Amino acid sequence: MSDSDTTAKPAGETRDLIILGGGLVGMTLALAAAKAGITSHVIDRADPADLVAEGADGRASAISTASWNLFDNIGLGERLAPLGCAIDSIAVTDGMKPGRIDFTPKPEEGSLGKMFFNRDLRLALFDAAKDEPNIAWHVKTEAVRRDRGPHGVEVELTDGRVLRASLLVAAEGRQSPTRDEAGFSMAKWDYKHRAMVTALYHSKPHDGTAWEIFYPAGPFALLPLLDDEEGRHRSALVWTVAEKDAGGVIAMNDAMFVNEVSERMHGVLGKIELAAPRMSYPLRFHHAARVIDERLAVIGDAAHGMHPIAGQGLNLGLRDVGALVEVLTEGMRLGLEPGDAQLLARYEKWRSLDSFMVMSVTDGLTRLFGVPGKLPSAVRRLGMGAVQRMPTLKRFFMDEARGMSGKLPELLQG
To answer: Which helix (H) or strand (E) holds 279?
Structure first.
């Protein structure tokens, strides 16, 4: 549905939700809500055609088992299933020295998740949203005014149209103006690191293994992707470098970059070459002390941003989606409106502890593996060797990777 399609609807049409941000988390919320009979206006300043253009974004995301259940339960499973590469095992190593951990589930337990190109996820979400009557999709525009009050919310768009709803949801990402306007206090710090992100072709098959190689300068992750149409093996790369060195890495030509990457891979995937554009972004931690206000819920990166060390950023946002839809559906069944304060309080209580726990573990890992020196490295490898020999502890970590721990929303259950 293009922006022009929405003009047929009367200005000020009232829906249940106004979702600011139509990215992966915002659009998943709109679709999940629509399947539950909850209507929404989705507002996004981007042009969807730009976001799904070939070569516009070579990034890929690890989708946990719980997040896959969500996509499947809202009708995207059939479309996405052939596009995801199963993560059958995870190898964790301290600089490729002896003493690594291998997380490999039993065959009957399924994979530890799936890797998808972000472009494929967007295409599936956008195609489903186009044909969904419960979603009014307003693109290439943004909110210039947001008013929240006891009787509802009102948002004015750049072209002067006014939209109304019971609840405003901020899914605008890390720089969320709605969250900042609401005055949410934030715990935040800068890791002084930058992630170098791309995809690689490699001569040896990855066999469904994700590699997490920890170096003092930061983690170096290789994540399995499906072979391309020509049968070339592919993996996604997330290489963390210190901010002071980032300029030099960004300035490297492709041949130098590939050479540096190859050195850190120790030949595990054979000869490599670039398979996607190189991108980079700074790594910062932020966690909103609150995720609700009067007729406002904050989800995804607007509420919490973390180091990509465990690949849980998008999955945490999708847990927000599942929890919010469940809370709203149950409340509306009892005759409450989506913006009801007691529903929002339940959402906040459910999500605050879970997101804080995941983020604390992620931050702790980042700091633990970032301590340089031979002694800390030896201690880490000793600890990793102990985990390797303890099935119960390995099971805990694998459940965390799958996103199957804690109180899961129904949409994220199998």
So the answer is: strand 279-288
Higher pLDDT: 397 or 152? It is 152
Residue 257 lies in a domain: no
pLDDT single digits (tens) 213-248 = 888 777 899 999 999 999 999 999 999 898 999 999
Q: Quick check: 42 and 3 in contact, CB under 8 A?
A: no
Q: From CA 268, how far away is CA 256, in angstroms rounded?
A: 19
In a domain, 141, yes or no: yes
Q: Domain count of the chain? A: 1
Q: Mind listing the pLDDT tens digit for each residue in 74-105?
A: 999 999 999 999 999 989 888 887 777 787 87
In 292-398 the beta strands, taken as DSSP E runs, fall at 292-293, 296-298, 304-305
**What is the domain range of residue 134?**
3-56+74-92+118-187+285-369+407-412
DSSP character for 9?
Answer: S
Euclidean distance between CA atoms 299 and 347, whole angstroms:
11
- The answer to whether 246 and 266 are in contact (CB under 8 A) is no
Which residues have CB under 8 Å from 409's CB, separation 6+? 319, 322, 323, 325, 326
Residues found in the chain: 414
CATH number at residue 170: 3.50.50.60
Collapsed DSSP state (helix, strand, coil) of residue 312: coil
How distant, in Å, are the alpha carbons of 21, 79, 195 from that of 198?
Answer: 25, 24, 10
Residue 335 lies in a domain: yes
Q: What count of Cα atoms within 13 Å lies in the side-chain half-sphere of residue 237?
A: 28
- 241 in any annotated domain: no
pTM beyond 0.85: yes
| Nearest alpha carbon to residue 324 among 113, 124, 168, 163 | 168
